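BUG: 3D viewer hangs when loading the predicted structure for this chain

Environment: internal workstation, default settings.
Expected: structure renders.
Actual: progress bar stalls at 90%.

Input used:
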Amino acid sequence: MKRILKYIWLWGLLSLCVSSCEEEAAVINPDVSHDKPTEVVIGDSPRLCSELQTDNQQVFLIVTDKENEVVTDQVSVVLKEAATGTKNLTVVVDKDFDVETFQLAYTNSNYTLLPDNAYELGNGGSLTIAAGAMQSGKMTLILKGWMLPVPSNSNLGASQYLLPLKIKEDGKYQTLLYRINWTNGKHRLTSSRKGYTCIGYVDTEKMSPLVSSVYWLEDASWEMSKASQLFDVVNLLRATVGTGGELKLNADISHVLKNADKYIRPLKLMGMKVCLTVKNSSTIGFCHLTDGEIENFVAQVRNAVELYELDGIDLWDDSDEYGIDGIKNTSTYPKLIKALREALSKETMLTVADKGEATALFFDKEKCGGIEVGKYIDYAYTGYINQYSLPFWTKFEIPEAEWMICGRKPFAGLEKSDFVCFTRDFTKFYLDYYSADMNFMSFVMDMGTGDVPGMSVFNESKGYIAYDIPDNVRGMEILTIGVTTDMQMMIDPSVQISVHPHEAGAVGNDVDNTYFRKDW
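Structure tokens produced before the viewer hung:
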């Protein structure tokens, strides 16, 4: 609750700001938590406490294989009331921890207990609580990542470990669980070998975000040292903008955000950035907001990012989906983007889909109220799914191709390397979709020129959008890899995309046939 309470003061501040706007809006409470914490509920019992993550009984850490590079934490016991006398306690590793049950509860987890040689408990795990104190002294925990075995190429998921700590003398103390991911720096998403950014969308109305963790790029030589995860960024679908600039979270996205320990933090441990996608509603888009409503929206988004520890916000306004009012003010959406960029930290990503009238004038600084949108965002990309959009700078021109998206212009202030021109529905096969379209086939195939136009454009774009990442049907994993194989000529012919499915047991509503269907 600590992270929730600190936002309450913003309500009063927001009301003062909004009352001074020329275009007033109803003040919306910026607290997006709905009075429910994201951390594990601590309760009233005495507990083991981590200095690194004091408000959570699960601690998320990354260790590396660099020799003699350790990760440390300070562990103590915290009481609810002062001790009546001196207590001597001992912290030990719970060797009886039910790993299998944990694996089933946390989809796509391949956790095993951390080997004895990869950790040390300082002072033999001894802790002392002085009479009258509510917290013990501190014990140093040392983690040694270089002592962990290197995963084999066929088992890249075997880099997840558990270290459950408990009090030896009394089972009434809440335990402390460390969830640890190992990396050798070579199969992190941000690896330079890939040379491009891949953004994946997960529809939380159907799918667990953890589905994004099983897609890997592998070198044709099958060397594990050259393997890397496919997705750099995972965008969670979806929140919407509502009346008065309200940030609306439906039941599915709310569940995912409030259970970040299960659905978000494991992805972050693997190196992915996890962002929230906000779309228009059926009647309201970002182009409709007044100045006061923009302030409301920005305050709520900022709080959501901080509360749920998100890495960014993705904006997708499809002006074709909402009412007949259309675009009221061409400077409103740019003003919103600028306000978000200024409110969010420099490390927080901000991305925008380019589609329809909502973004059609982003190339014109003057029509955007003097705002160069491209200077305030990390990426822009085409919002036309399954339709190839040649970027504005490419040398290739196929004007007669019906699948071309024509007339889009570059955002003012945006570098060409920050525009992603490929957006596809990951549940559809491109070759099936376009097999009868010779213009498309000419575009993606080498026609004797010694060059593959599609690949050349991709290399200029430096990015790829995978919309609606699919699940794998149990027993048909090899067949469903085809969803990704037909994009290889667009990415890199020297590598293949493989899927490493969850092996710890089926979960979810369709427990007999799927791995990653939502399990709530």
